[in-house]
UniProtKB/TrEMBL annotation:
GO terms for molecular function: branched-chain amino acid transmembrane transporter activity. The keyword Ubl conjugation does not apply. It is found in: Cell membrane. Keywords: Cell membrane, Membrane, Transmembrane, Transmembrane helix. Its main location: membrane. It is a multi-pass membrane protein. The keyword Amino-acid biosynthesis does not apply. GO terms for cellular component: plasma membrane. This is Urea transport system permease protein. The chain crosses the membrane at residues 12-32, 44-66, 122-145, 152-171, 200-220, 247-268, 288-312, 324-349. It comes from Amorphus orientalis.
């Protein structure tokens, strides 16, 4: 375990990992009441998406403006299981058709659709949370990257897919809950997820999963695959002429980013208790890119801090200045992009990391990074 950590993280990154762990596992739970802790748990679900964007956009140069699609699909898969559990014949006895979700009964649907049936199984639901968004990402990736579609064109196409899925969900109200989404989720295998104790437990489950994804992302960045992704980002034609199948690498990292987003979506549903198309479309997808940009698209830790900071600011502004928070969010994004193009992680790398490395060097405990993810300028040097 120690050798794996030493191969995967530098000394400075291990310190950053421990600081983030202390913040999430100790400082926030001790310093916040259950309501606020649940809010930060929701913010951390967005960190899964930002982490996937660090791999896709920061390492691979693939800007997706449709990550909300995968976040939403993961969330909807979990919501379907929870809704079926809440729609037992006893709980829905007053409906004209007991045993089906309430929104189906309101829309004169008289039988559970066949594609809802497998979601009676929790094991299938866990499988579907990962498999459904990843399969869609695989189809999109094969269709786009095999034809060498990239850059702004890929970003626009992913944005269009987010819009299409939103319209589809809203239009099929009898099967998806429409614009309201799937609501009134109560229990997970009989365990009431609305209680304060459940919210605290789900916060820690979410945090453990996030750190698992952080380690996985760091492992990819430090591997040969990570170095190839950086080469593809900076000199795609050279990598292709060297004999590598560039499309396969892009498809893999895009699918991995979608899987991270799907886990975040499923945890969002468990912690917040609903899933709706407002979390799938163009606006939330762009907000997810803002989380990554503010934190720093080349840093996995920056992605987590960016998601926490932007969502905390969003909540604070919307509580104090409900008419102005959208303008404040826009100003924050523009200001960070113009003044700090590498986000908070860039400020850390410029002003804090050199001092930290000097301290570690004095103590004789500094190791060179075996394959850091450099920004394009650094790579060119």
């Amino acid at each position: 375990m120690t050798s794996f950590a030493n191969r995967t993280f530098t000394s400075a990154e291990i310190i950053g990992f421990l600081v983030l762990a202390a913040l999430i596992f100790v400082v926030l739970p001790l310093g916040l009441d259950t309501f606020r802790l649940n809010l930060f748990g929701k913010y951390l679900t967005y960190a899964f998406v930002a982490l996937g964007l660090v791999l896709c956009w920061g390492a691979g140069g693939i800007l997706s403006l449709g990550q909300g699609v995968f976040f939403g699909l993961g969330g909807y898969c979990m919501a379907m299981f929870l809704k079926l559990e809440a729609s037992s014949p006893e709980n829905t006895a007053i409906q004209s058709t007991p045993g089906i979700p309430d929104f189906m009964d309101w829309n004169q649907v008289t039988a559970l659709p066949w594609w809802w049936e497998p979601f009676h199984s929790f094991a299938f639901t866990i499988f579907a949370v990962i498999a459904v968004p990843t399969a869609l990402a695989f189809i999109i990736g094969i269709a786009m990257f095999r034809r060498r579609v990239g850059g702004v064109y890929f970003a626009i196409i992913t944005q269009a897919i987010a819009a299409i899925l939103t319209i589809l969900i809203i239009g099929q109200q009898g099967y998806t809950g429409g614009v309201n989404g799937i609501t009134d989720l109560r229990t997970l295998h009989g365990w009431d997820i609305r209680t304060d104790d459940a919210k605290v437990i789900l916060y820690f489950v979410n945090a453990v999963l996030l750190f698992g994804c952080l380690v996985a992302a760091q492992f990819v960045r430090r591997s040969k695959l990570g170095r190839l992704l950086i080469a593809i980002r900076d000199q795609e034609d050279r990598v292709r002429f060297s004999g590598y199948d560039v499309a396969n690498f892009k498809v893999f990292v895009f699918c991995l980013g979608s899987a991270f987003a799907a886990i975040g979506g499923a945890m969002f549903t468990l912690q917040v208790g609903f899933m709706s198309p407002t979390l799938v479309g163009i606006v939330p997808s762009i907000e997810m890119v803002i989380f990554c940009a503010v934190g720093g698209r080349y840093s996995i830790f920056g992605a987590v801090y960016g998601a926490l900071l932007v969502n905390w600011a969003k909540t604070t502004f919307s509580e104090s200045f409900p008419e102005l928070w959208l303008f404040a969010m826009g100003a924050l994004f523009i200001g960070v992009v113009l003044a700090f193009p590498q986000g908070l992680a860039g400020l850390y790398a410029e002003h804090v990391e050199p001092h930290l490395k000097r301290l570690l060097r004095r103590s004789g405990d500094v190791r060179p990074a075996p394959g850091a993810t450099p920004a394009p300028d650094a790579a060119a040097e």
